[in-house]
Design a protein that fits this description.
CATH class of the largest domain: Alpha Beta
Number of strands: 8
CATH architecture of the largest domain: 3-Layer(aba) Sandwich
Strand content: 15-25%
CATH topology of the largest domain: Rossmann fold
Shape: elongated
Helix content: 40-55%
Order of helices and strands: EHEHEHEHEHEHHHHEE
CATH superfamily of the largest domain: Response regulator
Number of helices: 9
Structural class: alpha/beta
Distance between the termini: 31 Å
Length: about 240
């Protein structure tokens, strides 16, 4: 099994020392470089073509920097590294292809896990960062609605869901529109997170879609589940 190549950016010298100590001693991870500026990160990404880029320099108003990184290293999976990420930025980032949301207060175990999960193209985030992606009122779903949400969390597209339930694709879209409003989700991503939380299954993984969001009304809040949310993000 080949080592996971990782490129990290941070403008904090002490954090840089910690990252080098943590990842430099990991036999499964090849820490290529720790960059101190975005231009330096872009150059390193183009030069080394890493598996994962942990980007700790991009501010919420600078998401265009993600696009630049993707152009420099097209096969790399990007992890956003910040103390907190707003709901709007999280949605935009997922749509842009970001596969990890890592808190600067993350434990070494969570840091390593995030890299491994993101490298597989799956979505990883700490539960504390899901608070703004979930609503906070109890929701009762019908049997058919629960079945649809369950299939959605498995990563099925509308056509596949329709086939599994024996209904038309148009009916699936109608169900989804109703569910967005009922659950308080703005798109498939939030609806899948809701399904993940409601299922309470272990390990805490779900398959969800982050592309082509459909508005289902303003998002409300749900308490974040304990642990870590991990989800494979597939196209709708």
């Amino acid at each position: 099994m080949s080592m996971l190549s990782v490129l990290v950016s941070t403008d904090e010298p002490l954090v840089e020392i910690g990252v080098k100590a943590l990842l430099g001693s990991d036999p499964e991870i090849n820490l290529l470089e720790v960059c101190r500026s975005h231009p330096e990160l872009l150059q390193a990404a183009s030069r080394s073509q890493p598996d994962v880029i942990v980007c700790g320099l991009i501010r919420e108003t600078e998401l265009n920097g993600i696009r630049e990184l993707q152009m420099m290293a097209r096969s790399a999976h990007i992890v956003m590294w910040a103390r907190e990420v707003s709901t709007e930025v999280a949605h935009q980032a997922v749509e842009m292809g970001v596969r990890g949301f890592l808190s600067t207060t993350a434990t070494p175990e969570h840091f390593r896990e995030c890299l491994q999960i993101a490298a597989r193209g799956e979505l990883w985030m700490e539960s504390s960062l899901t608070m703004n992606l979930l609503n906070n009122r109890p929701v009762s779903l019908s049997k058919r609605q629960s079945e649809l949400v369950g299939l959605l969390t498995q990563g099925l597209k509308n056509k596949e869901i329709a086939s599994a339930l024996g209904i038309s694709e148009g009916t699936v879209k109608a169900y989804l529109t109703t569910l967005y409003e009922k659950v308080g989700a703005r798109d498939r991503f939030e609806l899948a997170l809701f399904g993940f939380e409601e299922s309470g299954r272990a390990p805490r993984k779900c398959q969800c879609c982050g592309d082509n969001p459909l508005s289902g009304g303003p998002a409300r809040r749900r308490p974040a589940p304990r642990g870590v949310v991990k989800a494979s993000v597939m196209g709708a």
